[in-house]
Amino acid sequence: TTFQDGGEEVEDGAVYNVTLKKVQIQQAANKGARWLGGEGDQLPPEHTVRQYETSKIRAIKAGTLEKLVENLLTAFGDADFSYISIFLATYRAFASPRAVLELLLDRFGNLETSSQGEVANLNSLESEMVLRAEIASVLRAWLDQCSEDFREPPDYVCLLKLLDYLKNNMPNSDMESRVQNLLKQFQNQEVEAVDGFCSTSSSELVDGEELEISNPEEFSSFQDHVVAEQLTYMDVMLFRRVVPYHCLGSIWSQRDKKENKNLAPTVRATITQFNAVTKCVISTILGTRELKIQQRAKIIEKWIHIAHECRILKNFSSLRAIISALQSNSIYRLKTTWMCVSKDILLMYEELSEIFSDHDNYLTSRELLMKEATSKFANLDSSEKENQKKSQKRLQLQKNKGVMQGTVPYLGTFLTDLIMLDTALQDYVEGGLINFEKRRREFEVIAQIKLLQSSCNSYCLIPDQKFIQWFRRQRHLTEEESYRLSREAEAAADTNILSPKSQKSMVKRISILFLGTDVFTPPKEQPLKSSPVGGSSGESTDSASVSSCEFNHSETEDVCVTPISSPEDPLKKVQLRPLHAAGRPKTLAQGSCSDKGSGSSKGSISDPGSGLDSGSIPSRDSGLVPSSAPKVLPVYNQQSEGSCIIRVSMDGLHASVYKSILITNQDRIPDVTQRALLKHNLEPDAVEDYELVQVISEDKELVFPRDANVFYGMNSHVNFNFILRKK
């Protein structure tokens, strides 16, 4: 089979990519061979005749909403077999369920008013049956893949409309019974909320329970593999409930608006659980002042072992949460405590941390995640023989149970990629047509999420109520509390005398672990000030992810651990910052967790745009760009192919509360200012009231003239950070 580019076909309201597929359908003996009585499959190539068939594959590239909905009925005939799944997974970015359902049923579902080509003009029983079969096929796929689209309590308008259509056009069908059952199911259920086990607020506790600081003895009573299994159980329950379209950049980036406080609840739930794990790690290490150095080191070792058990269970979400907590400033700065951690466990910690290395847009974790997604058990490799031996022993115990494992991903990676795609690619192209090529790119990420959700069905974990209740009761420390307790613990530890040899040995081990060098520079120990924004992504931006650090906060109880690095301090410093799922995540350029940083930091998200595949980018002026001319997606801090991404924050707000905005070499100040106002949910007509400035340094700014070209006027040798200031 061979494929050939067939160019484009343009219709009224739609543009299609055409591919010619050439398939060999028959191999027969030629005339001379037949005279000798030979058969085609028994003769050499020179004595055979091959017959080929060429078919045309049409894939819609852009179109009006009407054309996109109509294509649901014709895509199978055009050999675009994945179109229905792509449309259903992404249409919420440009249309509502009601709008799509009305078009499908009212305009195309009625034979007499249908505008389909060969069906529209035929008033025959056969054509009616064909149309009904197509409608039924689309509706069946919709109910199979996205039944949550019809959950609209208390009226269930779409579901009732669908039921009415089926009663009139497909009475007593299996489809009608299915919709009736779904309606009863929704009506009998309360609006789905986050499971109680993933919440740590006192309102979720059983009557009589109170939040408490962890008791070290009680925590130590839980076996490492039990803790890992229970964290995995909670993560699996939440990840399986994630609605894929909630992760779309155009959906997730709107969550900080007041009217959208309940937007994407399934994603928020995973963030809540991620942060709860991170906070639990910190509170168990620092919550008890009376702990001795060795006791505190044992707790750190226990969490490293739990992280390793999470790795065996292929739970990358809790694994990253634990690693991020151990890299937080309040834990990392416990130098004396880390000196008491055994060498083998430190090496294990280093190997686990390397999984989330930000090198090459987190290539290691991405490749490992996809490799693990289709494997029955974890693929464990260790450079340290003792760790390798322990890992294989634990893995063998899992295999002996005969139960396959799924894979729980770190959701932030997918959120980052989807928001970068949303930022880099236009929603509409020339003629106001919906850019469906963008949706195909987004579906590549959504499909990975669905694959991993499916794999989670392989887990067979039983909840341990004792641990879950303990986990829910934990009182989490604030940033100030954790830092104060960290200083107190280290001050107490300083009274102990360590031999010069042990000090030198630990300095070398810690420096190798975090720097890959023998130079050790402890982080600055000035108290950290609370920031109004969150962690590694801190903000309300248009790009990013979930991590112990990738969201800004709106509520004081949400806290996130964020590794921070900066050019002034080459050592990876870690900072605890408030976090809330309602804030927008951001992507970090060049592996830095701060807006100005250029270093790398484990447990943070680097600029995902830099690692995305090449693809066609619609030009601002020319609209559709042929797929034969691939371009690199624009990224932050780099001008390429006449475009780039800048970060714009509002004057008076923290610099990490920003919006990612795509600009081209055609954009002038009014255009960029208007888009920035829209992104910050301000009145776009107030362009004349604001000025746009680029931050050059702490004491220097570049102020743009009224009609300046931003792309050519900006300083490309510093970070692309801008401020929108009222005149």
Please characterize this protein's 3D structure.
The chain has helices spanning 31-35, 65-74, 83-90, 97-107, 117-120, 125-146, 157-169, 174-188, 216-221, 224-240, 249-252, 265-286, 293-312, 316-326, 329-332, 335-339, 343-354, 363-373, 385-400, 412-424, 436-455, 465-473, 479-494, 500-514, 669-679, 710-713, and strands at 2-11, 14-29, 48-63, 428-429, 433-435, 559-566, 569-578, 643-650, 658-664, 690-697, 700-703, 721-726. The chain is of the alpha+beta class. Among the domains are: 1-29 and 48-58, no CATH class; 64-110 and 129-189, Son of sevenless (SoS) protein Chain: S domain 1 (Son of sevenless (SoS) protein, Chain S, domain 1, Up-down Bundle); 224-481, Son of Sevenless (SoS) protein, Chain S, domain 2 (Orthogonal Bundle); 638-726, Roll (Ubiquitin-like (UB roll)), CATH 3.10.20.90. It has a five-stranded antiparallel beta sheet. A hairpin with a 7-residue loop joins β8 and β9 (658-664). α4 runs parallel beside α7 (157-169), α10 runs antiparallel to α12 and α12 (265-286) crosses α14 (316-326). The longest helix has 22 residues, at 125-146. Keywords: Guanine-nucleotide releasing factor. It holds the Pfam family RA. Residues 538-548 have a biased composition (Polar residues). Residues 591-611 have a biased composition (Low complexity). Residues 524-548, 582-628 are annotated as: Disordered.
Mean pLDDT: 74
Q: Say what the CATH topology of the domain at 224-481 is.
A: Son of Sevenless (SoS) protein, Chain S, domain 2
- How many DSSP E strands? 12
> What's the CATH C level of the domain at 224-481?
Mainly Alpha
Which second-level CATH architecture of the domain at 224-481 applies?
A: Orthogonal Bundle
Any idea what the CATH superfamily of the domain at 224-481 is called?
Ras guanine-nucleotide exchange factors catalytic domain
| Spatial arrangement of strands, main beta sheet | 1-2-3-5-4
Q: How many strands, which pairing sense, and closed or not: the largest β-sheet?
A: 5 strands, antiparallel
- Strand percentage lies at 5-15%
Unreliable runs, pLDDT <50, ≥5 residues?
112-122, 191-208, 497-630
Radius of gyration: 29 Å
Q: How would the global form be characterised?
A: globular
Number of separate helices: 26
Helix content: 40-55%
End-to-end separation in angstroms reads: 63 Å
Main structural class = alpha+beta
